[in-house]
UniProtKB/TrEMBL annotation:
Residues 7-110 form the Rieske domain. One of its GO terms (molecular function) is metal ion binding. It comes from the Bacteria. Keywords: 2Fe-2S, Iron, Iron-sulfur, Metal-binding. The lineage of its organism: Bacteria, Pseudomonadati, Pseudomonadota, Alphaproteobacteria, Caulobacterales. It comes from Asticcacaulis excentricus (strain ATCC 15261 / DSM 4724 / KCTC 12464 / NCIMB 9791 / VKM B-1370 / CB 48). This is Rieske (2Fe-2S) iron-sulfur domain protein.
Length: 111
């Protein structure tokens, strides 16, 4: 079940340091990724086969080294940060499911 609106996911400072924060609670799996200065949230399920994108669940595995696109570690699908559109790989043209989040002061919360 998705967390209720207003649920605190992480601090703004944490997201700035790591670039990606995973959220696992009550069967819901999502992640928040920093897109320049905007937090973007997505359900952590690749459109290709529903697997969590990070493979071994390390935050550092959710983006390319350049941090320009979201990357699925299973079969290499790549996604735009701002829309979740898959721009390469086996699910090209599909989207990650959006999980709206926003910055509120020093925290990142669900909308
Ligand atoms: S599970 Fe993501 S590309 Fe195959």
């Amino acid at each position: 079940m998705r967390p209720l609106p207003g649920t605190i996911i992480c601090t703004w400072a944490e997201l700035q340091v790591t670039g990606t924060v995973l959220y696992r609670q009550d069967g819901f799996e999502g992640f928040v990724i920093l897109d320049d200065y905007v937090p973007r949230g997505y359900v952590d399920a690749c459109p290709h086969n529903g697997m969590p994108l990070g493979g071994d669940q390390e935050e550092s595995d959710y983006q390319t080294r350049e941090q320009d696109v979201i990357l699925c570690r299973w079969h290499g699908a790549s996604f735009l940060k701002d829309s979740g559109l898959c721009i390469g790989g086996p699910c090209a043209g599909e989207h990650l499911a959006s999980w709206p989040v926003e910055r509120r002061g020093d925290e990142v919360v669900t909308v």
